[in-house]
Amino acid sequence: MRTSEDLPNPAPTAASAIAAAAGEPPNRTVQFISFRVGDQQFATDIMAVREIKGWTDTTTLPNQPEYLLGVLNLRGTIVPIYDLRCRFGLGLTTATRTHVVIIVSVMERTIGLLVDAVSDIITIKSSEIRPVPEMDRATTTNYLSGLISVGDSMVVLLSLETLFAQSSQLDTSTLAA
Amino acid sequence: MTETAFGKNELDRFRTTFFEECAELIADMEARLAGSASHVGDTEELNAIFRAVHSIKAGAGAFGLTQLVGFTHGFEAVLDCLRDGHIVQDDRISHVLVRAGDVLAALVEDAQGRGELPADFGADVAEELQALLEDRGCAEHSRAQAVAAPASLPTAAKAASAEHRYIIRFRPLAELFRHANEPLLLIREMKRIGTLAVRCDASALPGLDALEPEDAYLAWTFELATDKPRATVAEIFEFVDTDCALEIEDVAAVAADPASAPSEPSGGASVAGAAPTQVHHDHGHGSNAHAAHAAPALSPPAQPAAAHPAAVQPSPPKSSPAGRAASATASIRVDLARIDRLVNTVGELVITQSMLTQQLMEQGGIGARILRGHEDLSQLTRELQECVMAIRMQPVKSVFQRMPRLVREVASRLGKDVELVMRGEQTEVDKTVIEELADPLTHMIRNAIDHGIEDAATRAAEGKPAVGRIELSAAHVGSNILIHVADDGAGIHRERLLQKAVEKGILPANADLQDAEIDELIFAPGFSTAQVVTDVSGRGVGMDVVRRNINALGGRILVQSTPGRGTRFTLIIPLTLAVLDGMVVAVGEEKYILPLTSIIESYRPDRRTVRTLAGGGQVAAVRGEYVRLVYLWKVFNVPGAVTEPSNGLVVLVETASGGKIGIVVDELIGQQQVVIKSLLDNFDSVSGISGATILGTGRVALILDIEQLPMLGDRRRRLRLDEAGAETRDQAPIPLVATG
Questions:
Q1: Which residues of B touch A176 (CB under 8 A)?
Q2: Which of B15, B132, B169, B293 is deepest in the core (most CB within 10 A)?
Q3: Each residue's pLDDT expressed in tens, for chain A with a length of 177 residues
């Protein structure tokens, strides 16, 4: 992760531009749930979060990327669990009972994110979200939707939609075409 | 009841019911129309079609759908002429009838909401129908009926001056009165239409001590002289005809005027026959009775015919047993959502029950005692589940019968002559499966007509019959339904397919593929081999989507093609998406479920029977056969598994195409019925896995897809093909951090 290094001061105009582009009033209050992966703080829109539960063993799905830890039974629903640390290329998490799975709803799917700990609920004005500066070409940052300062530390906003974009999803309605 | 008695809600509800029934009637009509093309003049079929059209007309009249009434009227007139033999059915008529059926279906759909069709839609067909009538001298008939049909029956009957004498033998069943019927009313009704002589048979009357006050004991023989046709007489008994033995005999058609009698609109099929005839009870679809409730209050004149599917049949009635069975079944309409809830709840019950069993088994002591009673519970749970599943089972007919219209439409647009042959329409499958079948079948049949069947000239040159043939069939095989879509067209053009695959970069230019592998290419995304893109098949989106849809049902689709002879698609789809009898197997720390129905046997192989082939594949000799071994730990990359088959177990399974493979596992854990959960709700499909379930421990176990397992073994060899193919797309990982 290089996003935390050498951040230039984002111009306030850029932030309001983002908010405007999103069609939101610049001072809407938004809430995020922040969580820790390794030594970094991330946050995601609270509205996407369905529940937070302790880690339980998953059933491995064969021939899948390493960061997909497998599936678990959430009251009768099969939910895939992703290791965010591994997803960011920081190695597999050795999950223990103190680890936490955040169940989120992304693009009509329910998935679980394994994180080290849930930290806080952040309530801020949308104008306080800073844009992510451009990185070099080797670094994809499109799943990072913004940066927030909380006290001295920086919290990275995750866009789950982008992170879990399903390139293979085809529109089955085209079948009859 | 009067019209004012109905609130708007009731009216809306009747309207909904009407259209629901229209859909059923039309479906039934289409099926029969397709049938009547081959069984020329089958009276029963014609009657059924007539009834469908007539019921639609009656309802349409009640709801003021004038366009529909206008069209059904002409249609009905032709059918009526056909029934009484004024028109002899020939190819031209069959053709017009089928087209009229199509127009009618479109009109009903249109009336249901959109109202987009032009006012003169179907006018050409209507004219053709009229022309038919005039050609055959039935114009009079039609005009007479034009007045008669919407008017009340007595008016219509005045036209007929013929005098009939009927002997009616009426023997009520004991429960007649309990069903709120009253013979006296029937007698009065008969007196109203003619001169009546009544003879009462009281021989069955018991002594007072044995008399059940609510039972009917008397029987009557009536002699009725009337100018009304038989149907009118039969109609009087309409509401009691399930509660009695009834025989209506036409002893003399006095001053018989054969032309006037059949013009009676409400279904007088064969009044001229003087032989004793039996009233044939046909209660339609159970829902006809429903229509009768909706229609009469609003339009009394239309009611008798709509509610009167009982037609007088020449004796002995010739009937198709299937049709009879289907129509005699009583049924109720239930909201699908309610059934779904029931199915889900029972599913959870099964899981909970097996969890309990497991916990009791681990208990020992008192647990073992409870366990015995528990076995009964588990039996009951299972039965309950089967019952619930049976509710959802429906014949594939409901989707099959949409296909003839599709074939006609597509074939006529493409100027091809195609015949559709359907078999096994009564094969039952889960309702959810049926719904998902419509799109893939539509697509495959379109493809078959567009790409498969050649034009007439080519066919002639090949020495094939001019009419192309598409076969659609369904059958049960184990816990699967097998659907074939076969055409006798040109087959898959392998060279063109290969060339295209190379062009698209799916294959390297020097790829050396088996024929079957080439055929598989049609399932690759973005393939359309028609050289001319038509508006029928469109382009690009094609068989890959079909395969995806079928896979989503837990099914598979296979293709076989012979150049010049045709192409056959085989769909293998589980009967239900809800439960599966499974064998739990262990590999390392993992547990998988094998569908029990595909397991032939399991055994521990002798080391000497396992051979390694050149290239690394392994086979085992089983009773003189060599069976390929698939190591689950290898294909799924499971650590800590038994690697030596002679220390583990080989489970011999049969694939849908009849091949056998040996799946190497560590051990068998036990047999269990599992509730199938889809992975697709929250994830993509995974090769070799058809779904998941929840074990008694609450843990997820994966259900193996036996058809895909052998292909996983081929993975390395086929990798290149796969990369662009559907299989890898199915499980495309989310983009890695450093890509893009």
A1: 439, 442-443
A2: B132
A3: 444 444 444 444 444 445 444 555 667 899 999 999 988 899 999 999 999 999 988 999 988 888 899 999 887 789 999 999 988 888 888 888 889 999 999 888 999 999 999 999 999 998 889 888 887 766 667 788 899 998 888 999 998 888 877 433 322 333 333
CATH number, residue B517: 3.30.565.10
Same domain, B423 and B378: no
Q: Do B729 and A168 touch (CB under 8 A)?
A: yes
| Structural domains counted in chain B | 5
**Structure token pair of residue B309:** 């599917």
Q: Which domain holds residue B584?
A: 579-715
Side-chain half-sphere exposure of A81, counting CA atoms within 13 A: 27
Tokens of A153: 């530390």
Residue B278: inside a domain, yes or no? Answer: no
Q: Is B731 helix (H, G, I), strand (E, B) or coil?
A: coil
Half-sphere exposure of B540 (CA within 13 A, CB side): 5
ipTM summary value:
0.77
Transcribe B388-428 into DSSP letters. Answer: HHHHHEEETHHHHTTHHHHHHHHHHHHT--EEEEEE-TT-E
- B535 interface with A at CB cutoff 8 Å: no
Question: Residues B588, B538: one domain?
Answer: no
Shortest alpha-carbon distance between residue B335 and chain A (Å): 23
| Amino acid at the residue A38 | G
Tokens at B369, concatenated? 């005692």
- Residue B99: the pLDDT is 81
Residue B720 within any structural domain of the chain = no
If asked whether residues B300 and B385 sit together in one domain, one would say no
Task: Indicate the pairing of strand B700-704 with strand B590-595.
Answer: parallel
Please check whether residue B448 lies inside any domain of the structure.
Answer: yes
Give the sign of the dihedral formed by CA B638, CA B643, CA B645, CA B648.
Answer: negative
> What's the whole-number mean pLDDT along residues B76-88?
77
pLDDT single digits (tens) B274-302: 344 344 444 434 334 343 343 333 334 43
B120 shares its domain with B9: yes
- Neighboring chain B residues of A165 at a CB cutoff of 8 Å: 734-735
**A102-152: pLDDT as tens digits:** 999 988 899 999 999 999 999 999 888 988 888 776 666 778 889 999 888
Q: Which residue from B530, B532, B527, B531 is spatially nearest to B507, judged by alpha carbons?
A: B527
Question: Looking at the domain assignment, is residue B527 inside a domain?
Answer: yes
Q: Read out DSSP for B124-186?
A: HHHHHHHHHHHHTT-HHHHHHHHHHTTS-HHHHHHT---EEEEEEEEEE-GGGGGGT--HHHH
Structure token pair of residue A80: 């895939």
Residue B252 one-letter amino acid:
A
Cβ atoms of B30 and B405 closer than 8 Å? yes
CATH architecture of A12-158: Beta Barrel (2.40)
Q: Which residues of B touch A134 (CB under 8 A)?
A: none
Last residue of a domain, one of B293, B328, B363: B328
pLDDT at B714: 46
Residue ending a domain, choose from B574, B599, B629:
B574
Which amino acid is residue B238, in one-letter code? E
pLDDT at B592: 94
CATH number at residue B662: 2.40.50.180
Output phi, psi for A54, to 5 deg.
Answer: -70, 160
Measure in Å the smallest separation between the Cα of A105 and chain B Cα atoms. Answer: 9
Task: Note every long-range contact of B654-658, with CB atoms under 8 Å and residues 24 or more positions apart, other chains counting.
Answer: B654/B598, B654/B600, B655/B598, B655/B706, B655/B707, B655/B710, B656/B477, B656/B480, B656/B482, B656/B556, B656/B558, B656/B570, B656/B572, B656/B706, B656/B707, B657/B558, B657/B570, B657/B707
Record: contact B731-A88, CB cut-off 8 A = no
Q: At what angle do helices B287-298 and B43-62 cross, to 10 degrees?
A: 40
Encode pLDDT of B622-636 as tens digits. 888 888 899 998 888
Write out the H or E segment, with its range, that includes residue B472.
Answer: strand B468-477
Task: Quote the tokens at residue B562.
Answer: 């012979």
